[in-house]
Amino acid sequence: MKLATYKAASGPRIAAVHGKDDKLFDLAAAAERDGKAEPAFRSMLDLMEGGAAALDRARALLSKRQGAADLSIAITPGILLAPVPVPRSMRDFSSFPEHLKNAGRGMRKLVAKMRNEPPPQLPPVAEIPEQFRKRPQFYKGNVLTVVGTDADVRYPKYSKYLDYELECGVFIGKRGVDIPKNKVAEHIFGYALFNDFSARDEQSFDMAGGFGPGKGKDFDTGNAIGPWIVTADELTEPYKRRATAKVNGEIWTDTDMSDGIYTFADLISFISGDVTLYPGEFIAAGTMSNGCGMEHDRYLKPGDTVELWMDGIGTLRNKLVAA
């Protein structure tokens, strides 16, 4: 099942995506039509809190009433919000070794470019820092900067080298702490794409001190999630599914998640050690290998349209606009 949050005159509403992924079936309206209002359909967070029973009711309503024309509306550009407009938290990992190798080389090339120095002659990177293999590494993002598909992303005025990042993430659907790996599947609500827009010139300064990405990844509209959530029962084997990033229709990245060091089971089990996870928290596996412009020494400019796509999920599309 695909689930979305969309704009309505009364405010954000949740819906099941159906047809050819071009229609929204209003779950709250369908429940009222069925004679029983459903508190779990007030928002995506409420649906997550409602657990398996709420999902089962959503599926039953879609099966019973999706033919009712007045319960569905067309998906048009700009109607979709982020599936959870304000996630309870965001954690982003780095799980893909080729990305780590390529990004390190790309950052050194960028620093030389900003200093007006000749491009450095860099040998291939043999191995990633051992910390990344010893245990998962992550940072926390700003949940108040999240946008959905077709939303404009404002190019931060302090940057000249903005980049996209092709990522897949999961929303937690069940509360848990100290979750063993073999139980993690019970806690995953579903999957969505994540574009962790990054101001690389600012990031080069932020991370030189070894403290984290800072303003390189913290600006309004800088975190795009969507286009919707694909529930965990529908998206099996996410690691071998093809994923691409297009800029103005040109493919810059064509990859998958098969070379990741860690699975979502590894990441979620690690995070939940002595920390309770709650429905609505978002966890991204990190930039896929070859999954950003810096790995190709290419950067975005105002006016560019970035489209992330993954088999089984769909397309997350954003246009860059000047600040």
How would you sum up this structure, described in words?
The chain is an alpha+beta fold. It folds into 2 domains: 2-74, no CATH class; 89-322, Fumarylacetoacetate hydrolase, domain 2, CATH 3.90.850.10. The chain is built from 6 helices and 18 strands. The chain has helices at residues 27-33, 44-65, 97-114, 130-134, 200-206, 264-271; strands at residues 2-6, 13-18, 23-26, 72-74, 89-93, 138-140, 146-147, 152-155, 162-163, 166-172, 188-196, 198-199, 223-231, 243-247, 250-255, 281-284, 305-310, 314-322. The strands form 3 sheets. Strands 1, 2, 3, 4, 5, 6, 7, 10, 11, 13 and 16 form an 11-stranded mixed sheet that branches. A 5-stranded mixed sheet has the order 8-18-17-14-15, with no helix packed on it. It has a two-stranded antiparallel sheet with strand order 9-12. Strand 1 and strand 2 (13-18) form a beta hairpin. The longest helix is centred in the N-terminal third of the chain and has 22 residues, at 44-65. It is globular. The model has no long low-confidence stretch (mean pLDDT 96).
Topology record:
Layout (H helix, E strand, L loop, with lengths): L1 E5 L6 E6 L4 E4 H7 L10 H22 L6 E3 L14 E5 L3 H18 L15 H5 L3 E3 L5 E2 L4 E4 L6 E2 L2 E7 L15 E9 L1 E2 H7 L16 E9 L11 E5 L2 E6 L8 H8 L9 E4 L20 E6 L3 E9 L1
Features:
323 residues; alpha+beta; Fumarylacetoacetate hydrolase, domain 2; 2 domains; eleven-stranded mixed β-sheet; five-stranded mixed β-sheet; 6 helices; 18 strands; 21% helix; globular
